[in-house]
Amino acid sequence: MDGSSKEEEDGTFTNISLADDTDHSSRILYPRRKSLLPKMMNADMDAVDVENQVELEEKTRLINQVLELQHTLEDLSARVDAVKEENLKLKSENQVLGQYIENLMSASSVFQTTDTKSKRK
């Protein structure tokens, strides 16, 4: 036996590697495995980056939509306030006009109430 192999009981030989860390055969395999890992990680990170980018775009879109709806709500609220003020103004004008019409009707003989019972007697 030469030290690099071991004889089994059945007469077959099993190779046992006696190579140390400076062995070129182990160096060739290790860097390949190591180089695949960063590529996979880069691909995963690219997928995560794309996913994060999509998520960020969606968040930005939603924020812009919320802000737009907020501005629309503010505009509608301001419009409601303006309509309320206009409504109060018109009610006041209607009261003034109603009082004016009542005064005109009471001053005019055409609109005076006639007592039909007193004319019959």
UniProtKB/TrEMBL annotation:
UniProt KW keywords: Coiled coil, Cytoplasm, Golgi apparatus, Membrane
Gene3D superfamilies associated with the record: 1.20.5.170
Coiled coil start-end: 59-93
Membrane topology, from the record: Peripheral membrane protein
GO cellular component: cytosol; Golgi membrane; trans-Golgi network
A UniProt-annotated Pfam family: DUF2205
InterPro entries in alphabetical order: SCOC
Compartments (UniProt record): Cytoplasm, Cytosol; Golgi apparatus membrane; Golgi apparatus, trans-Golgi network
Role this protein plays: Positive regulator of amino acid starvation-induced autophagy.
Oligomeric form and interacting partners: Homodimer. Interacts with ARL1, ARL2 and ARL3. Directly interacts with FEZ1 and UVRAG. The interaction with UVRAG is reduced by amino acid starvation, but the complex is stabilized in the presence of FEZ1. Interacts with NRBF2.
Family: Belongs to the SCOC family.
Name recorded for this polypeptide: Short coiled-coil protein
Native source organism of the sequence: Microcebus murinus
Biological classification of the source: Eukaryota, Metazoa, Chordata, Craniata, Vertebrata
